[in-house]
Amino acid sequence: MNSEYNVSRYLVSRLHEIGIKHIFGVPGDYVLDFLDEVVAGPIQWVGNCNELNAGYAADGYARINGAGAAVVTYGVGGLSILNAVAGAFAEQVPLIVISGAPASHRRESGVMVHHLISNYYMQLDIYKKITIDAAILTDPNTAPDEIDRVLRNCIARKLPVYLELPADIALSSCRKPGELFYDEPVTSNEDSLKECILEVAEKINKASNPVILAGVELLRFGLGRETLKLVETSEVPFVTMLNSKSILPELHPQFAGIYRGAWSHESVRRQVEDSDCLLSLGVWITDLDTGMFSTNLDNRRMITVGGGKVSIGSHYYQQIQLDDFIRELTSIIQPRNYLASHPSVSFQSKKPFVPEQSCILSAPRLYECVDFYLDDNMILLAEPGDAFCAAPEFHIEEADNFIVQSYYCSIGLCTPAALGVALACPEKRPFVLTGDGAFQMTAQEVSTLIRERCPAIILVINNDGYLIERVLHEDGPYNDIQMWNYSRLSDLFDGGDFVIGIKANTEEELEHAMKIAAKEKNKLVIIEACIINRDYSAGLQRLGDTLKPKK
Amino acid sequence: MNSEYNVSRYLVSRLHEIGIKHIFGVPGDYVLDFLDEVVAGPIQWVGNCNELNAGYAADGYARINGAGAAVVTYGVGGLSILNAVAGAFAEQVPLIVISGAPASHRRESGVMVHHLISNYYMQLDIYKKITIDAAILTDPNTAPDEIDRVLRNCIARKLPVYLELPADIALSSCRKPGELFYDEPVTSNEDSLKECILEVAEKINKASNPVILAGVELLRFGLGRETLKLVETSEVPFVTMLNSKSILPELHPQFAGIYRGAWSHESVRRQVEDSDCLLSLGVWITDLDTGMFSTNLDNRRMITVGGGKVSIGSHYYQQIQLDDFIRELTSIIQPRNYLASHPSVSFQSKKPFVPEQSCILSAPRLYECVDFYLDDNMILLAEPGDAFCAAPEFHIEEADNFIVQSYYCSIGLCTPAALGVALACPEKRPFVLTGDGAFQMTAQEVSTLIRERCPAIILVINNDGYLIERVLHEDGPYNDIQMWNYSRLSDLFDGGDFVIGIKANTEEELEHAMKIAAKEKNKLVIIEACIINRDYSAGLQRLGDTLKPKK
Fold this sequence. Notes:
Oligomer: homodimer
Number of strands of chain A: 19
Shape of chain A: globular
Structural class of chain A: alpha/beta
Largest sheet of chain A: 7 strands, mixed
Helix content of chain A: 25-40%
Low-confidence stretches of chain A: none
Radius of gyration of chain A: 24 Å
């Protein structure tokens, strides 16, 4: 690489510095100079079949790696990836989008060039709505500072950002990258923090049945380890939510289950809602994480931490950061001796899966089988649909081993996201659990999994269409889809020996397929699990009972 | 159907009234009540594999039918289809997007519900940028008027519109549809028109070599027939552009060719640029339609009609509509006796395709073969890439028989668009000419072509990746893609006897494939044409010569 810097090389250098080792995307003529710098540099280029899939792959990568990036061309690329970026914005995932753009003299003259929507600032205007920071790099002198600011905001806020790189700026000379200064972390007000921690500690110490509700922000800000220290020091039992599932180990003796309002198991619901001191850490109150807002929590008995403040009953402290709160509370909280008095109350180990002979596969049995074969070296990606309705019941030990988009709920995310996961964490294996309708959305990305030799397991639940819609509403013909031969994907995508496709209709066949998948660790295994009579999980039943209009 | 009206039924009724017989889309829980009204009514529901594909299908449908519509759910659906809508906005295609949305009480409380990006007006705000009219239907009393206004604007302006239908409004009672009043067409100023036409007619009559440049707006506003009358009455020779190709018949004796600046054939370029009176009708000056703005036109010898005005040299007339102009000019223009003096000068008939024995297929020979087998019962969809670079040379007789997105240039459009074309015009057969990279973008929509039994011909040019990018720029590894076995698509999508997949490596094999396609009129035929050594058309060579940086 030439030792002089240009704007593209500067950007590649910064991306690498913040931990980007792979970059996803689709080429297009406005962005080829930048791509030349990418392939000449230390970051591996991963081409996708289309831009939306590239965005989903970068989302999966970012969730594991701490940041992800995707490159697209102007207009057709910038807008095709948009839904993935909106999902990252909703779900707080640090995704960097780099879009090529026409050269500056085109923008200044306003002429009609290919891929232009109708004016040269429209794409930026749209991105400003769904990112924490967005910029067009119009000047090579200011571009380094703009790049640094935008990337800093991405990392600090864990939210998507957008950089638009006009074709004539891409190779313009610019200064060398200096030291990358991250923003000083936002700190807590010391007096506030001290007073607050004393009050909280006293409340928890005095409580007879306190509970910690561990929310999704702990996952997004990497606070799992600190939270586990607090949990173990205090011996306060904890629950998680679907979007924070496995942020703390699920085989932990203090784990009480997953709380989701009226959709919780009764014991979990009682433990949370009857608690005389509920410490809620970084929780998002979304419809699907609260059983459609069916939580029954008494504010007078709650301590809520998040968004820079702590609420205790009706009063609150400002300028308190989640990480400071957890660390300080851990340092003064008294152990409760919970474990001695509650020997493994909530400890539920996995049930072995023993197939019944010649028994047609039911949805509950499919999920029992999946649960049994999941191991610590797998990262489960549960697609919105019956897959994510069944997922709360799976036993998952490590925070990084579960990915779900339970707030934005974009079906089709998981197959491309598995590509990002596989590249971000090659020592683990992505396990995609997806419905047939969701899988069809982005199926071509299996071809990229093959190309990049990612030995994922993809289990397509063939339950005859958009099953979740059938359950939530009177069924209609719009929920029908074309039946595919999912186990034959490899023929089309030229997977050769690298891909194994298996169709399972019975419990025995599924067990056989899962055993092959477990054994063939270096292969991409696609399992089509056929569920007849549109059978589904108990989790989806609860969702349907809440939402379906009563007759 | 119940005789009482609700907002959904009202909307379905209006859509049907303006000519929508098929509606594309993907279901989602916020839009299911509306879909129930769709499937109970006179419009046929066509489910797609994903929303972007639904948008492309509706675009293809709209180009043939005069309007097209797609239904999506909120957020994940509304943003996934966005690029197709932006393309329709750029290319002036009347596409109606209907998005479900959370119920009003959710919007009013601002809570976090699934598919929400971050605020309840963001989707509308984004759509306002890429549509001519957009509304959230928040009140069943005003919804009918809003629907009427939005649809009127779509039809009158030939541009996309957006309707957001909250889940609680979908089934709310509303008034019956009355007569649908279209806006009065914008009329010309009579005095202006009269004076202008006299001046224009005199100029043309006096000119020694006038030429008509027939632009894309003639196609969008359905003025092909009127323009042909003008052409034949006046006997002025005409040229078209790539985006208006075949708006007038290409075997017509007055047809002089396709004008594209420096990319034109020399004879066409000379005829246009040396003309002493060039009448430009509804032309868009875009980069790819002008050989990267390489037109060399003398404004003093030009008459430019479009956008409600007429420019003649340096003066102009306002308030003159394109249709009025053409009709009035036709009524007074004098015939020139061009045909007698120019016997079939530009008339080029098709060359028969005679394969050379055992000859490996080259790109030019592929396109000669396609041209020979194209007939008046086929609608060619030429994908951006080498396909649309080769397309100017094809002989196409009817305006509706050619579809190209030569301004917005979104690769992947043509395969889903063929679904819309097939349903809008079942008496003709879509012929998709696409590159391998473009095809992979939206390949799953072949499954919907199978499901809807659309006997399209899809010719995938397997030229080893993003060939156009290789030609426009120094080649890079980002242009490589995974090689698929395109002729085996049917195995995956369960096409059975309905689908024929053929791979062609030689001229003879291609001829054989095209003969089968021609014979099997009721089948979906997928031809993989393998071009070795990354060979391409002369059209792409011209593009590359203009754009590739000189070394």
